[in-house]
Amino acid sequence: MPPPIEEEWPAILLVRPQMGENIGAVARVLLNFGLISLRLVAPRDRWPNPKAEVVAVGADKVLKGARVEWSLDEALADATLVIAASARPRGLEKPVWGPREAALNIRAALALGEKPVVMFGPEAAGMETEEIARADAIMTLPVNPGFASLNLANAVAVFAFAYAEARQVEDLPSWFRDSESEPATQEELEKLFGHLEQELEHGRFFHPDDKAALMKRNLRSIFLRARLTVQEAQTLRGVIKALTIGRGGRKKDDL
Amino acid sequence: MPPPIEEEWPAILLVRPQMGENIGAVARVLLNFGLISLRLVAPRDRWPNPKAEVVAVGADKVLKGARVEWSLDEALADATLVIAASARPRGLEKPVWGPREAALNIRAALALGEKPVVMFGPEAAGMETEEIARADAIMTLPVNPGFASLNLANAVAVFAFAYAEARQVEDLPSWFRDSESEPATQEELEKLFGHLEQELEHGRFFHPDDKAALMKRNLRSIFLRARLTVQEAQTLRGVIKALTIGRGGRKKDDL
């Protein structure tokens, strides 16, 4: 019999999951398809969750190894490629992939040393736009428009299956930048965005106020699509400093 | 928004399903991917099953429309193409397909007026070899050899997703016989097999006894692989009669 498959990447991130049974079912189906890295952001019920353990069956390893964080920032800090499972959301300029496409792009990213995370929203409600905005790309499933709401574990099952199939594919997509350069992590990007937004607020850029969130999302999307390297992220922060010097830019609270 | 998808074929057959929750989860994920024909053979618990209804959420239509039979014969009687979801079983000479391959072959079959049924075994145990032997082909999932046991609804989700994707594929496989000829149903094939086996028993063909079941499965596989038409099935029964006339063949209890 071939050896077991246990791959650390991609990590699967459940954002604000509600039912322990679903978390356990996700752990099980991840291991079914050889994925072992589970992350949880702010699970609704206490953790560890006995209901999750019952349903995980033989996948306790995945469950016990799950990384639990209270903020999405922490859960994504080390990620260099973030894919959000979601129906195509309005007003976010991001690539939209099917599961197979997402899986192949993740394989290509891994070959370049990236750290991909695929995130799934909570039961029923799904992720907030602000959460989806964190992603480099959106993954949509070809669901029935008349009945689109998938069970969480089934949605993860579809991705995990598509990913297992992608392991067999030799000819990977090549839209990624060259492998010489180190990709920026979400943490580094957050510092860049924080710095930029702070200086733009200082410059009264975000008005009217009720448009500010949208304007920030759109700016974020531009730089996410650029797939910045560590070096590029640092360069851009230098650019911001250079642009703000002498206008009373607030150097002392640079992030 | 595009219209809802509700396709009668392929039908999904759960063989001796145990937990109502799983049956309900299957109904839900079928409708998620636009499939509405659910069949159950000998469900363990009473039917209708309240636990199934809770989990099916908005898919009550699929659940209420489910066809419940007590024997696999009845549940497969009208099928002309049967696919069994199973790990590759030893000693069955049948084509083995992945979910995508199965989905594309089903699409090709539908275009020729076939009636495809995809069957899934009970939780834990899976189907008996005799049950899998009824299938024209086996569908296997690319699971982790170290942890292969999938939740029933997750397994159905993987197929239903692959099927939804196959709807977009123009270029379908063409291994099927021409569309002029009417495909034989499982009921017609069962009559043929029953007739043949009866006459072969009469001729002391099946010995030693402990090999009889295997010998019957192998014979069955040959004719299943031939993808017989109605006409061909009748012709073969005529052949059996012709071969057995005058040897004290038991014409009176011809099936």
From TrEMBL, chains A, B:
GO cellular component, one term: cytosol
GO biological process: tRNA nucleoside ribose methylation
Keyword Methyltransferase applies: yes
Domain tRNA/rRNA methyltransferase SpoU type: 12-160
Gene3D superfamilies noted in UniProt: 1.10.8.590, 3.40.1280.10
Keywords tagged on the record: Methyltransferase, S-adenosyl-L-methionine, Transferase
Top-level lineage group: Bacteria
Enzyme Commission designation: 2.1.1.200
CDD domains xref list: SpoU-like_TrmJ
Pfam families according to UniProt: SpoU_methylase
Family the entry assigns: Belongs to the class IV-like SAM-binding methyltransferase superfamily. RNA methyltransferase TrmH family.
Full protein name: tRNA (Cytidine/uridine-2'-O-)-methyltransferase TrmJ
Biological source species: Terricaulis silvestris
Gene name of the encoded protein: trmJ
